[in-house]
Amino acid sequence: MSFSLPPIHRWWTLAVLALTQLVVVLDATIVTIALPQAQQELGLSDVERQWVITAYVLVFGALLLLGGRIADYWGRKRSFMVGMIGFGAASAFGGLAQTGTELIIARGLQGLFAALLAPAALSLLTVTFASGRDRNTAFAVFGIIGGTGAAIGLLLGGALTEFTSWRWCLLVNVVFVIVGMIGGALFLRESKADGDNTYDMWGAITVGLGLGSLVYGFSLAEQGWGNLDTIGFLALGVALLAVFVLIESRVAQPLLPLRIILNRVRGGAFLIQTIVGSVLIGATLYLTFHFQIVLGMEPLVAGLANVAMTVVILIVVPILTKLLPTIGPRILMIVGPLFAAAGLFVLSFITPDGDYVTQVLPALVLLGAGLAAIFVPLQNLALTGVAAHDAGAASATVNAATQIGGSIGLSVFTAIYARAAEDSAASGSIPFATFTDGYSAVFLASAITMVAASLIAVCMIRGTKSELLPQGEQVRTAHVG
Prior knowledge:
It contains 20 helices and no strands. Helix content is about 80%, strand content about 0%. The model is unreliable at about 1-5 and about 470-480 (pLDDT under 50). The chain has about 475 residues and is mostly helical. The longest helix has about 35 residues, at about 390-425. This is MFS transporter. It is a multi-pass membrane protein. It is found in: Cell membrane.
């Protein structure tokens, strides 16, 4: 099912959905810069500090598939509006939190309603822009928001923390929600999947618990990869996800139809999206720590320090969007991760006495260029050939890949940082050198994962330009790969 809307109306629809994407993406990072202030005011432990971020991305990622199916069956606009209301209420609760526990609960509730909101928005985009040049443009805009939202969150969080309070990093969402609800009421059109629709609750339970166990196991890796609890939760997570796959292969109305991810091109896009999420959410946290702790930047300046990457993305994306029909998506998906890896590799050489211009700025330029090349075709590839009935599930998988990648990446990178910092301290390094040694290890690990993303593109993003970039509805529903 696709909409036939006047062109102007469609672009207003895109504006509303892009605002939604911005809110969902920036909320994974907007509190990052505020964490030191929030930790001090609420008396958070270091473990609780990490869970302020992890609670959001974990609940978000774990429930996205169910949220996608609810959007398909219950109605995409209806899910969008309810998700907006709940997200705004959870944000207000978090902004008024008086304890660390309340803040973590509020972040989890934000993730819950974001899991309903995000797939509804992306599936509405999919059915509104079914094919052709307008579809490429719409998904490029979504890609820009996805890529710059994290940096915008850091900038906005820095400004709000410095001039008001860390609490406004959550309360500001209420403003976005009001605008989004007005826009949604005016411009969005209801759609839902046809046919017999039943919910796969056992699938929802096993994937939620499986992903939760997996992420929690990775978070325990800071205590040691050989720790019995670490191994136990990781093994339990893998077993539950295996059960989930078995359930999905047998039920009539699966939460995640395996045809969505078994397609080679889409499967490759989902894997790359997971890796990008781990870098954007996991690695950028430590860059922010470097700015504030080692370089001594104020919150606003630390946010501004990330703008270079955002500016590069905004410059490069329109250029690559115009070139996309000519060069095709495959070359961008191969080269983009390599540029990003180069930028992260440069960051791995930071030192306590280095400065931003020589050690960080060149890396951010490379990272921004690489991410721009990935964002232009990525979501389009992830949704190519998806039937309207599966739009919500496929859209949820796109978002889930980013959030689960981010939560796993944050946990793994935290373990890598802790081990490297511990080894540095044991060797007698000064405190700031201990920090930068830990950050360097995180950036090097991130670079390696981006190289892996390029190799995935080489192996899995295959097909002609007409297959990978459908120009009509008939091509759009064809099998790729």
